[in-house]
Structure formats: C-alpha cells, structure tokens
Amino acid sequence: MDLNRLKPAVPKYALMAMAGLLWTTVGLGLCRLGYKWVSLLPGTRSLPIGIAGGVLAVMTYRTSFSAVAAKNIERLCRLPDRGCLFAFQAWRSYLIIVFMIGLGVVLRHSPVPKAFLAVLYFAIGGALIMGSFRYYALLWRILAGRGPDRQT
User: Fold this and answer.
1) Fewest CB atoms within 10 A around its CB: which of 55, 112, 148, 149?
2) DSSP category for residue 10
3) CB neighbour list of residue 31: distance below 8 Å, 6 or more residues apart
4) C-alpha–C-alpha distance, residues 69 and 66, integer Å
5) How far is residue 107 from each of residues 49, 101, 110, 137, 141, measured CA to CA in Å?
6) How many other C-beta atoms can be found within 10 angstroms of the C-beta atom of residue 10?
7) What are phi and psi of 10, to 5 degrees?
8) Residues 13 and 142 sit within 8 Å (Cβ to Cβ)
9) Distance between CA atoms of 50 and 45, rounded to whole angstroms?
10) Alpha-helix residue ranges (DSSP H) falling in the chain
11) pLDDT tens across 6-40, in order?
12) What is the pLDDT of residues 66-84, one digit of tens each?
C-alpha cells in the first residue's frame, strides 16, 4: 500500500494562506487579551501601555519575526506544488507553538501584573500580525500569476 496516497496534500498556495492565517489569528487573539487587560485601567495608564506595546511590536517584528516568516516562506517555496496539509509550519515550529501556549497559560495565571502582560501580548501579537502580511504578499503574487520567485 502506498502511504503517500493517505497524506493530506494541498496546493502550495494553500499552505501560504494557512501560515498567514495562523499568524493573524494568534496575533489578534493576543492583542485581544492585551486590550481586555488594558481596558480595565484608567486612561492615563492605558495609553502608555498601548504605545509601548505598539513600539515593541514593530521592534519585535523587525528584529526577529520578519526573519522567521522569511525563513518559513523560503522553506514553503522549496516544497513541491502540493505539500502535506501540516507543512505550513516546520515541525520544530509546532514544538515552539506548544511551548508558547504553555508559557502563556502560566503567565496568565501568575502574579505578574496584567498591565505588564498586556505590553508583552501587544508586542508579540502585533509582530505576528505584521509577519502574516509577508505570507499574504507572497500569496497575492502567486495568485496574480507572478509566482513566488518574481518580485514584480
């Protein structure tokens, strides 16, 4: 029996879309939690927290998440035209995802002030959302017939 027939294969562009949607969904979820915590604070405290989270989001995106997205996109581009449904992230990324979920649960139930966590959640959530646009830009080029390798 050929086990490759059982592999749930999808077109490469679907993997790009799934990766972008995962990054967007997680980013929005983190930002939502951060907003929930900040909304309980007086306005004089919430604005600086929001600004700090936004600044850190840009810095986090530029210093690390942009490179992570680029590396994953490069890996996806090397895949055959149809790849396994679960190949939208590298297998090591799944381990990181599990670790980050566990860390998030621990932090949310820890005595760490929610205002501090809000900054952290805004930073990571915002960086994920910005990183997702790299996937969408490539997906747009693929669907427009310009392919993943052409920049025009």
Assistant:
1) 149
2) E
3) 121, 122, 125, 126, 129
4) 5
5) 18, 10, 5, 33, 39
6) 16
7) -135, 160
8) yes
9) 9
10) 12-38, 43-60, 66-78, 91-108, 114-143
11) 678 888 889 999 999 999 999 999 999 999 999 98
12) 999 999 999 998 988 888 8
pTM to 2 decimal places: 0.87
Tokens matching residue 2: 């050929």
* Main-chain dihedrals φ then ψ at residue 83, nearest 5 degrees: -125, 165
User: What kind and span of H or E run contains 84?
Assistant: strand 82-84
Strand, coil or helix: what is 151? Answer: coil
Widest pairwise Cα distance in the chain: 66
| Integer angstrom CA distances of residue 66 from 23, 28, 38, 135 | 12, 17, 27, 11
- Reported residue count of the chain is 152
